[in-house]
Amino acid sequence: MELLFYIYLLASKPNGTLYIGVTNDLVRRVWEHKNDVVQGFSKTYQTHTLVWYETTPSSAAAIQREKTLKKYPRSWKVNLIEAQNPHWEDLYESIC
């Protein structure tokens, strides 16, 4: 079985606050965000809606992609989301 790593974006609401993260278990990690399991940015800003994600087979590549995405302006991130998810729907159910 191939291990995948995920780079993901969460939002507080459509066009709201964005959070970028990396994980090797997207279902578990998004559940943790939705249920405020961990103190931090996501809990403070209520970024609970999974609006975008991509996969990579390498943890190093996932971390590099996360760092790259964080450097892009907000407008670029919004365009990235809207290219695949124009209505900012919560993708969590589709990955469960």
Describe the model:
A hairpin with a 6-residue loop joins β1 and β2. Strands 2-1-3 form a three-stranded antiparallel beta sheet, sandwiched between helices. The protein contains five helices and three strands, in the order ββααβααα. The protein has helices at residues 26-34, 41-45, 59-71, 74-84, 92-95, and strands at residues 5-11, 18-23, 49-56. The protein is globular and about 35 Å long. The chain has one domain: GIY-YIG endonuclease (3-Layer(aba) Sandwich), CATH 3.40.1440.10. With 96 residues, the chain is an alpha+beta fold.
Layout: helices, strands, pairs:
Elements: E1 5-11, E2 18-23, H1 26-34, H2 41-45, E3 49-56, H3 59-71, H4 74-84, H5 92-95
Antiparallel strand pairs: 1-2, 1-3
What is the rounded distance between the termini?
18 Å
Number of helices: 5
Instruction: Return the CATH architecture.
Output: 3-Layer(aba) Sandwich
Superfamily (CATH H level) name: GIY-YIG endonuclease
What's the number of structural domains? Answer: 1
User: Structural class of the secondary elements?
Assistant: alpha+beta
Overall average residue pLDDT: 96
**Radius of gyration over all CA atoms, rounded:** 13 Å
Which stretches are poorly predicted, pLDDT < 50 over at least 5 residues? none
What is the global morphology? globular
**What fraction strand?**
15-25%
Helical content band: 40-55%
